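User: Here's a chain of 160 residues. Predict its fold as tokens.
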Amino acid sequence: MIDFGFDKLALIGAVALIVIGPEKLPRVARTVGHLVGKAQRYVADVKAEVNRSIELDELKKMKTQFEDAARNVEQSVNQELHDTTRDLQQSWQDSGFGAGTAGESSSLEPPPLSYQPPRKNWRLKRGAMPLWYKQRNGVRTRAQSGAARVARFRPPRASS
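Assistant: Prediction complete.
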């Protein structure tokens, strides 16, 4: 980059004062300052965009590495599970329990498990909460309209 020292800037200012004149020099200096600021902002934006694209490429590389590692772990777990299952079946058959016919051995196998989501019954959960706990923590036990709540907490009228 060009190195501007104080002596070079003073020389440029003296030449600009002679060429442009003292009346127009402040306006020209302000314009040059605005242009230099715009150029600096543009360069900063370009640098930020380049840095973002580099970081994005690095993140994509990391993502592929993690996906590959996850696939490798999954394959090794599946392989170990398969080996363990095979060894278990082999030991089951060697022990004499699986020595019967195919129909008998299939009846000894447990049925395949399927996922069942937990049953959520909030009414039972709310009903199982003791009344003293509800009263202490301010849990409403009865539905009440807004107008009824206002009327309930309204101060009594003074009789005249």
